[in-house]
Design goal:
This protein has a single domain, classed as RelE-like (YaeB-like fold, 2-Layer Sandwich), CATH 3.30.2310. It is built from two helices and five strands, in the order E-H-H-E-E-E-E. It has helices at residues 8-15, 19-34; strands at residues 3-6, 44-45, 53-56, 61-68, 72-80. A five-stranded mixed β-sheet has the order 1-5-4-3-2.
Length: 86
């Protein structure tokens, strides 16, 4: 079981989402906490970055995160698929 730390940029991005989307995020964060490679998360490493991963909330919303040590996941950002291009 991982512990999740939230960055300010993640919290700002989360507030921009609808209530329905925020509920979906909460469910996916529970999965991420228990198993970062749970199939419905579609987790993959972001190319060109060391220790940066993305997972899917739905077909449009992504969570960017990285590992901190062996038991902590730090959320970097959340938003529509275009956040990957930042």
């Amino acid at each position: 079981m991982y512990r999740i730390e939230y960055t300010k940029s993640f919290e700002r991005g989360l507030k921009k989402l609808s209530i329905y989307e925020q509920r979906a995020v909460a469910n996916k964060l529970k999965l991420l906490q228990s198993n970062p490679y749970y199939p419905s998360l579609r987790t993959k490493k972001v190319q060109g970055f060391e220790n940066l991963f993305e997972c899917s909330v739905n077909m449009d919303i992504r969570i960017l995160w990285r590992y901190k040590g062996e038991s902590i996941i730090v959320t970097i950002d959340i938003g529509h698929h275009s956040i990957i291009d930042k």
